[in-house]
Write a structure and sequence with these properties.
heterodimer, A: 226 residues, mainly alpha, globular, B: 212 residues, alpha/beta, four-stranded antiparallel β-sheet
Chain lengths: 226, 212
């Protein structure tokens, strides 16, 4: 087996293990989806009959996605620490394998979150997307950015005593440029701008993902070790 | 040929020294028993040997066929069984073994796993989730997961903890086999168990190695 295929196979094993565990316990999934649905319901009641501008709709969408993600994405590492399985995993798997497996798991969680939140937002908040292709591109890149940062912060936070609060506090500053760009690009999609008009935002989102994944792979060895 | 060498190894947590200046060499076919009072650092030393912890001072070196390595570079050389090293409770025994085999780059062979489980007295529980296991059964399964890649260095922290007489007999057999084909390092407070080691490292003030 070549080095790359053995790396992919090991990362897939980590992902497979996390998916099995998650779908049996629904630990992170319940936290994320319950938070999303509850927040969305509260916001839709609060907004009531008011007609919202695309700018406010875009901001509300990403606020809900951000806080829902924060309520569950950290579980990927925190659960290993709390269950005492972290030593066995560290002894068996190389650090990059663990990072890639956990990142892929968080990407899948973000995908499920978007699949649930988007149709609910359309129904409950009257969201009308003029450029669906651009909207989908923003969702994919924004979710990937959120997942890539959340994964490395979750690894750092899992070793701390006050995990929950620390995760959101540490994640917010580096996520701010991503969220602002996502809101701006989402507004353009809602207003029906074409892909070229949203080019700078899409390039920034893509760069954010690449930088974050590269940095995380470089730093993960130190975060994951003693 | 494989050997483990500890040179001037010390470990502190939050500036509180646990032990200092530990020196030992364990060669293939030998067993090192680590003894000492509670809090003397027996479990910590096992974690330093396999690279789960980094020494505050000194060096842990693993020599494989004449080449020296840090423990983290030869991850597949180690198998570790310890009370606080847990398995995945929401997975079955076979799924746990399959996972650890795959992340170590081994094929997931259920027939081999089943044979290992049978050897450890868990033949009919392979498809049960580990969270339904008793503490003794969990400990047996930890042996199965630690042995599935035939590690040349086996590290055992309190080898017979939580085990019944049958389990202890199985563990002693594992220990005898490991001494034949590799290196065994184990931490224990049981004087009879310590006699299974060819060398005994007594942690305390100062740490010293003695021959059995």
């Amino acid at each position: 087996m070549t080095e790359i295929s053995s790396f992919v196979s090991a990362a897939h094993a980590v992902l497979d293990k996390d998916l099995r565990s998650e779908f049996r316990t629904k630990y992170a999934l319940n936290a994320i989806l319950l938070f999303a649905v509850t927040t969305l319901t509260v916001v839709s009641f609060a907004v009531g009959q008011f007609s919202l501008t695309p700018e406010i709709q875009a901001a509300l969408y990403w606020v809900i996605v951000f806080f829902s993600a924060m309520s569950g994405l950290s579980r990927v590492f925190v659960r290993e620490e709390e269950a005492g399985t972290v030593h066995a995993l560290r002894l068996a798997a190389a650090p990059p394998v663990v990072y890639v497996g956990k990142l892929t798991f968080n990407l899948i969680l973000m995908g499920i979150l978007e699949v649930v939140v988007f149709p609910l937002f359309v129904v409950m908040m009257g969201l009308r997307v003029q450029n669906l292709g651009l909207f989908a591109a923003v969702l994919v890149l924004g979710s990937a950015g959120l997942a890539s940062l959340a994964t490395i912060i979750a690894a750092i936070v899992s070793k701390a005593n006050v995990k929950g609060a620390l995760f959101t506090i540490l994640s917010f500053p580096p996520l701010l440029p991503l969220l602002i760009t996502c809101i701006r690009a989402t507004r353009l999609a809602l207003e029906g701008s074409d892909l070229a008009a949203a080019g700078p935002e899409l390039r920034l989102l893509a760069s954010y993902v690449v930088v974050m994944v590269t940095l995380s792979l470089m730093l993960f060895d130190f975060v994951w070790g003693d | 040929m494989i050997s483990v060498e500890l040179r001037g190894v010390g470990k502190s947590f939050n500036r509180r020294p646990i032990f200092a200046d530990v020196n030992a060499v364990v060669r293939e076919g030998c067993a090192l028993a680590i003894t000492g009072a509670n809090g003397s650092g027996k479990s910590t030393l096992l974690r330093l040997i396999c690279g789960l912890l980094v020494p505050s001072r000194g060096v842990v070196e693993i020599t494989v066929d004449g080449h020296k390595h840090y423990p983290t570079d030869v991850r597949n050389c180690f198998g570790l069984v310890a009370p606080d090293v847990s398995l995945y409770g929401e997975l079955t025994a076979l799924e746990n073994m399959g996972f650890f085999a795959r992340v170590r780059g081994l094929p997931a062979r259920n027939d081999e796993f089943a044979a290992l489980l049978a050897r450890l007295g868990l033949a009919d529980r392979g498809h049960d989730e580990v969270r339904t296991y008793s503490s003794g059964m969990c400990h047996r399964l930890k042996y199965a997961c630690a042995l599935l890649h035939h590690p040349p260095i086996l590290l055992l922290d309190e080898p017979s903890t939580n085990l019944d007489e049958e389990g202890i007999a199985i563990v002693y057999q594992v220990i005898a086999e490991q001494k034949q084909r590799g290196i065994l390092v184990f931490a224990t407070n049981d004087p009879r168990e310590a006699e299974l080691g060819d060398q005994v490292l007594r942690l305390g003030q100062p740490a010293q190695v003695g021959q059995m």
